[in-house]
From TrEMBL:
It comes from the Bacteria. The lineage of its organism: Bacteria, Bacillati, Actinomycetota, Actinomycetes, Micrococcales. Signal peptide: none annotated. It comes from Paeniglutamicibacter psychrophenolicus. This is Short-subunit dehydrogenase. Belongs to the short-chain dehydrogenases/reductases (SDR) family.
Length: 277
């Protein structure tokens, strides 16, 4: 069994989408937990450097890399640089993601559909595949966090492509957890994170369904961090995500559509979505 992690002293942490929002918060927690190396990947070079400046006073060695995770070539080049430098991470936080809130037929095939699937789904697989062999062979306690979404558990209008990208993440991530256990690599634990809307600006304009207010990012980040250190297989937030998933599983589709659409307001939650400007 892989024990609960008490400290990250001596560990290397890699976070994608680390320049701002919850990615930056994960980096702050890594520094607070005394990680030796914190590697920040993001496509936004300016924000990435601002974040690095803030973090470098905390005692960890901060490494910044401008990486376009929508491109396999960019991932491969960055991963090779990491392996050649500090070595594969002990903690991998697959956090980077984008959202497009519109009807399916309004999506552009390249800038919307391909970009969403590349960043939200394929990037997580490619990045994990780059580092996992080393994480397996060295035998140290390691963690992988894959950020999915409640949208990957429940269908929702104006989220068809985003939802599909997160459905794929959940299926892959939880299967990876089982594969590692079955193959005897129990020193690596995988946590799949499925939140409802979080106040990071990414879902600006979205309205939380009944009993599901928009989540505050810092408490959510801390809760994910605890789940990661404990090796918790899946984390859903808030509690209504579990309730909705259970109801969707037992109710006939027509009945669930009434409950989700008219009672909880899930199907109207994206009507006023604008996203981050």
């Amino acid at each position: 069994m892989s024990p609960t992690i008490d400290t990250l002293a001596g560990s290397t942490v890699l976070i994608t989408g680390a320049a701002m929002g919850m990615g930056k918060m994960y980096a702050q927690l890594a520094v607070r937990d005394r990680a030796s190396h914190v590697i920040l990947w993001d496509i936004n070079a300016a924000e990435l450097e601002h974040t690095a400046v803030e973090l470098r006073t905390g005692g960890s060695e901060i490494h910044t890399m401008v990486v376009d995770v929508s491109r396999l070539e960019s991932i491969e080049e960055a991963a090779e640089e990491v392996r050649a430098g500090v070595g594969a991470p002990d903690i991998l936080i697959n956090n980077a993601g984008i959202v497009r809130g519109k009807y399916f037929w309004e999506h552009d095939q390249r800038s919307d559909i391909a970009a969403t699937m590349n960043i939200n789904t394929l990037a997580l697989m490619h990045i994990t595949r780059e580092f996992l062999p080393s994480m397996i062979s060295r035998g140290r306690t390691s963690r992988i966090v894959n950020v999915a979404s409640a949208a990957g558990l429940l269908a929702n209008p104006r989220m068809s492509v985003y939802s599909s990208s997160k459905w794929a993440v959940i299926g892959w991530s939880d299967s990876l957890r089982l594969e590692l256990a079955q193959a005897g690599h129990k020193h690596i634990k995988v946590t799949t994170f499925c939140p409802s809307y979080i106040k990071t600006g990414m879902f600006e304009g979205a309205r939380g369904p009944l009993l599901t207010p928009l989540l505050e990012p810092w408490p959510v980040t801390e809760r994910v961090w605890r789940a990661m250190k404990d090796g918790q297989p899946m984390l859903m937030m808030p509690w209504t995500v579990k309730l909705s998933t259970a109801l969707r599983g037992v109710l006939p589709i027509a009945a669930w559509d009434v409950v989700a659409g008219r009672v909880f307001g899930v199907y109207k939650s994206m009507e006023h979505f604008t996203g981050r400007r």
